[in-house]
Amino acid sequence: MTSGKCERVSSEAITSSSKHLIKLWVGEDFCPLLLAKEILSYRIALRESAVHNARVFGYEGWRFPWESARTGIDVTPNCCPEVRLYEMHVTGDIAFAARQYIAATGNRDWLANELGGDLIYECARFWGSRAVYNNKKKQYEILTVLPPDEDALPFKNNSVFTNAVAALSIQLADSVSCITNKKTPQSWIDI
């Protein structure tokens, strides 16, 4: 991969040709450090599609699809509409990958000048708009999602995995706000 180009890496690109030019969510979770910045840059380059993906469902921020290709629009096969619509942890996975990249490299320039800070902030914004407050339970919830096990139908409310990556997304945005100058709203932190 070359810096500055919006190239695609499939989840199995190094070992298999079964997912030609399709980017699955596991790419961020299991990518080697050598490729991390380029894979995150791919997501940043397709930020307009991520904004569109969030708005289609009435949310803010950037929502990344379960399967993505050249345009950043979800290309999940028609056989799996539930996955396309409800497997939202992907956005949190990408923020987690950014966290791992920062922890491994300490690359503050990526945060401040290469839109890494925007990526993190907009992932957190998505979760800030996705969580709903349950007055009866006196807590925030993330309802109607699929966890990484997409065969775990019916949908879940408060999937442990989804809620964990959502919380990490918001915590990361708050942690790097001193570098990015993007103040995390208290309403997100309360989630």
From TrEMBL:
Q: Which GO terms describe its molecular function?
A: hydrolase activity, hydrolyzing O-glycosyl compounds
Domain (Glycoside hydrolase family 65 central catalytic) ranges: 36-176
User: Domain of life of the organism in this record?
Assistant: Eukaryota
Record InterPro entries:
6-hairpin_glycosidase_sf, 6hp_glycosidase-like_sf, Glyco_hydro_65_M
Biological process, per Gene Ontology: carbohydrate metabolic process
List, alphabetically, the SUPFAM superfamilies matched: Six-hairpin glycosidases
**Recorded family membership:** Belongs to the glycosyl hydrolase 65 family.
What is the protein's given name? Glycoside hydrolase family 65 central catalytic domain-containing protein
Q: Which organism is it from?
A: Rotaria magnacalcarata
